Amino acid sequence: MKTSTLQAIAEHHAEFPQSLADGVAQPEIQEASRALGVVFPDDYREFLTLYGGGHIGSYAVAGLRKWGFAANDDWNVLDQTMHFRSQKWPGTDQLAVFTNDGSGNPIGFDESGRVWLSDHDSCEVVGLELSFEDWVRCWALDLEEGTKDY
Description:
Layout: H1 3-15, H2 26-36, H3 42-51, E1 54-56, E2 59-61, H4 77-86, E3 96-100, E4 106-109, E5 115-119, E6 124-129, H5 132-140
Antiparallel strand pairs: 1-2, 3-4, 4-5, 5-6
């Protein structure tokens, strides 16, 4: 991740100390990736290594560790993903779901690291960003404009 992204996350964390969890070792991250059948992109693995999961802006970003502000049902990327897959949300069989849009629509990344939203109203999968870091910068931290549709 860019230094400016990590700095913005750290600044948010300094203001809200219970907003992030503790980091996770690579073997556990690799096991979670294997369990979901989705290769975790480098930027998400870096986030998990440093923080394990947490709130970034107003979004709960699921990972592998529970943090102080985490709700009981949104902190674990494995549980989030399996929940939406079991309900057969469009596209989630190819995604690792790490958050939702606030209206219950899951947001996750695919094998290539692209971030997608599964929209229950239209039953479509909509591209949001080209990477997890782009999603963090644009949607969670509001540091820059998002990527156009792709």
